[in-house]
Amino acid sequence: MSRFITLEGVEGSGKTTQILLLKKALRKKGLKVILTREPGGTPIGDQIRRILLDRKNKKMTALTELLLYEAGRAQHVSEKIRPALKQNKIVISDRYYDASTAYQGAARSLPPALVKNLNQIAAQGVKPDLTFILDLPVSVGLSRMKKRYSSSKKIDRIELEKEAFHKKIRQGYLKLAKKEPGRIKVIDANQTPKDIHTEIMQWIQSKIK
Ligand code: TMP
N or C: which end of the chain has fewer CB within 10 A? Predict the structure, then answer.
């Protein structure tokens, strides 16, 4: 049974909607499910999240950014993910270490070996059983994202990056999926939320057997 499930994707790919639908569907089957996210997932992780996404932090270097994501991840694994898996809960995380490969590796151009090593150190052996990449053209994702913003919800430091940066993220995710087809499933996010959910559930059922 797949117990650690992660969702990834470019901005505006509809992860949040899918995570909520998935939680509901698995709970209906009588399974114990917790939702979490990165960056964040713990009080320390949430403080790190604020630093990472704060638009005022214009001077943050790519290496600092990577180390902060990894620090938050190490805390997340120890404090939340591993204990929940030990209690036989299904953990659904909105992003995990594949995001560092795509964002800090492919898009910020940090050395792939460095990102891989730090991902392994932070994950402490806790690997996702199943990962869904909600894939969609960057222009579609960014325009969906912009529609969500109002005066109260401001665009964050990463979302502010140019379209070319987001295109590299998408390519980074697709490359990863090719390398690990057994774990990573790419889903066309340019479908209705219901159709995306059906596809996710079919994949999960096939893995449960
Ligand atoms: P969210 O918008 O999905 O909550 O994620 C916050 C931002 O952090 C998003 O732009 C993706 C980015 N991110 C990274 O750059 N590297 C990482 O390792 C993670 C987990 C997220």
Answer: C
Q: What is the mean pLDDT of residues 106-125?
A: 98
- Atom of ligand 1 lying closest to residue 70 CA: 18
Q: How far is the CA of 158 from the centre of ligand 1 (A)?
A: 8
Q: Is the pLDDT of residue 179 over 60?
A: yes
Give the mutation target among 69, 95, 104, 120 for probing the ligand 1 site: most ligand atoms within 8 A of CB: 95
Q: Check residue 39 and give left, alpha or beta (phi > 0: left; psi -120 to 50: alpha).
A: beta
CA distances from residue 73 to 11, 88, 93, 95, 121 in whole angstroms, order as listed = 20, 20, 11, 10, 10
Q: How far apart are CA 8 and CA 76, in angstroms?
A: 17
CA of 134 to the centre of ligand 1 (A): 14
User: Ligand 1: distance of its center to the CA of 30 in Å?
Assistant: 30
Please work out whether the CB of residue 110 comes within 6 Å of at least one atom of ligand 1.
no
Using alpha carbons, select from 114, 28, 44, 38 the residue that is nearest to residue 79: 44
Q: What 3-state class would DSSP assign to 10?
A: coil
Mean pLDDT of 95-120: 98
Coil, strand, or helix at residue 184? strand
Ligand 1 atom nearest 39 alpha carbon? 20
d(CA 36, CA 128): 13
Q: What is the pLDDT of residue 144?
A: 85
